[in-house]
Amino acid sequence: MFLQEDENMQENILRDSLVTHIFLSYMEAGKKQVVRVKLRFIDTRQAYFSAPPPINFVKPKRKTPAEIKVFTVDGVYKTDIFINDTQVNLTEVLFEVSVPKLWEYVQQRSSSRNRVSLPVKIKYNDGFEIETATFDIALGGIAFYSRDAISSIYKKLPAVLTMELPKSMWIKNPDCKIVVETCFVRERIEEEDEEHFHQFLYSYKFVNLPKDAENTLRELLLQITD
Q1: Distance (Å, rounded) from C-alpha 213 to C-alpha 145?
Q2: Torsions phi, psi of 165, nearest 5?
Q3: What is the DSSP letter of 167?
Q4: In whole angstroms, how large is the CA radius of gyration of the chain?
């Protein structure tokens, strides 16, 4: 468990396709209210989350203290915020909250994300290419270590990711690889793992992953788990 602060961290977390669900919880009328929400909009100062009106929903007062939890495939981010305003209609509840700058991150790897080393190339339109090997893989994206920092320019641009499949999958997949659009999600400097100490751990997400590629990834993750 550690605290992490970054001027872009809130956007990277909340817009991350590796996010599986988001929960907003607060106390109102002496009871804890927990609502599963979706991000509607975010800027540097506030964010808006929506949800279908829960049964027996109790509208929070303005400036109500709350906690937000963001679940991703490789961990949970949580932090304390304030609900600045709430709008309710027949189809949805819209929460306006202050955007946090400090997140508590709890590492909770699940079976949906697996450590495996496969050759990967990430190529940008200007010809810049990252050639590496995966540290772990999920249906939403990959992570890899690098001794070199990636320029901030490429953290904002889309790229094409090519990942080679293990030989055990070549018969069913004659192309022997997965090719998909990708983009940068986050980075951190490794401080605990001795093997990768002070290296950069980068996470990239898949964009518009084709169904056949998704099925191939599911099969790969099942093989790794077995």
Answers
A1: 24
A2: -90, 155
A3: G
A4: 20
- CATH number for 196: 2.40.10.220
| Residue 121 DSSP one-character state | E
Its pTM surpasses 0.85: no
Question: Phi first, then psi: what are they for 213, rounded to 5°?
Answer: -70, -40
Q: Which residue has the higher pLDDT, 18 or 154?
A: 154
Task: Give the tokens for residue 199.
Answer: 């290296």
Q: How many CB atoms lie within 10 A of CB 96?
A: 17
Tokens read off for 135: 């540290």
Confidence of residue 166 (pLDDT cuts 50, 70, 90): confident
Are residues 143 and 103 part of one domain?
A: no
Q: Which range of residues forms the domain containing residue 219?
A: 113-225
Question: Tens of pLDDT along 78-112?
Answer: 889 999 999 999 899 999 998 877 777 665 544 45
In whole angstroms, give the CA distance from residue 13 to residue 165: 28
Residues 6 and 56 in one domain: yes
Total count of residues recorded for the chain: 226
Beta bridge partners of 141: 205
Domain finish residue from 90, 107, 124: 107
Q: What is the percentage of the chain residues whose pLDDT exceeds 70?
A: 82
Secondary structure of residue 97 in the 3-state scheme: strand
The number of folded domains in the chain is 2
